[in-house]
């Protein structure tokens, strides 16, 4: 640690101030009109401090959105059954989505179409995180003989994420346990080629 850096507690408080300022400005003016200068002013932090932690606006914004929603999910304990494992993962994803501000997230999706740096960062950090969340679930199911080893992991993550996103931000229909159960039973288990008993 460099001698001019603040003690850890103060450093963490400064980081939270920067991430909070980022979210505030993102909601107020949108990604395109938000600048690192404005974030520094709002957070009362130097730009050098910001750039020591984040390479640029895209990485900073994605970190702020992730931190707000608690999207990075810890690997859950193995319940011993693929169906319950999928439901647990979907519940954790739902908590992250419902903590999001719809306007902020939809604005980010729009900005991705013309900002390649943002698109690349979102894909690497947010979308890939969701894909990786299912990997331990499928690995455990393969080891138990519940699904084939060549199950389509990418399709599973894409379909599950899209359906949760649609419910949360597009259709405004309930994102409840009944929906998650239907999603698992009617879509995800068949997509994986789930084997139960002699089936």
From TrEMBL:
Keywords: DNA-binding, Transcription, Transcription regulation. Residues 35-54 bind DNA. Residues 12-72 form the HTH tetR-type domain. The keyword DNA-binding applies. InterPro entries: DNA-bd_HTH_TetR-type_CS (IPR023772), Homeodomain-like_sf (IPR009057), HTH-type_TetR-like_transc_reg (IPR050109), HTH_TetR (IPR001647), Tet_transcr_reg_TetR-rel_C_sf (IPR036271), TetR_C (IPR011075). It holds the Pfam family TetR_C_11. Coiled coil: none annotated. This is TetR/AcrR family transcriptional regulator. The lineage of its organism: Bacteria, Bacillati, Actinomycetota, Actinomycetes, Streptosporangiales.
């Amino acid at each position: 640690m460099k001698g001019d850096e603040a003690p850890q507690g103060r450093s963490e408080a400064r980081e939270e101030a920067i991430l909070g300022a980022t979210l505030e400005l993102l909601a107020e003016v949108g990604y395109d009109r938000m600048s690192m200068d404005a974030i520094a002013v709002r957070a009362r932090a130097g730009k050098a401090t910001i750039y020591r932690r984040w390479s640029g606006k895209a990485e900073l914004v994605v970190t702020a959105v992730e931190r707000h929603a608690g999207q990075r999910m810890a690997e859950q304990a193995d319940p011993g059954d693929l169906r319950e494992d999928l439901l647990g993962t979907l519940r954790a994803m739902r908590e992250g989505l419902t903590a999001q501000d719809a306007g902020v997230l939809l604005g980010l999706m729009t900005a991705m179409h013309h900002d390649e740096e943002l698109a690349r960062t979102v894909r690497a950090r947010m979308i890939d995180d969701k894909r990786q969340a299912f990997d331990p679930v499928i690995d455990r199911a393969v080891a138990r003989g519940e699904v084939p080893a060549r199950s389509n992991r990418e399709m599973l993550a894409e379909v599950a994420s899209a359906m949760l996103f649609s419910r949360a931000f597009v259709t405004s229909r309930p994102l409840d346990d009944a929906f998650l159960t239907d999603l698992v039973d009617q879509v995800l288990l068949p997509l994986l080629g789930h084997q139960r008993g002699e089936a």
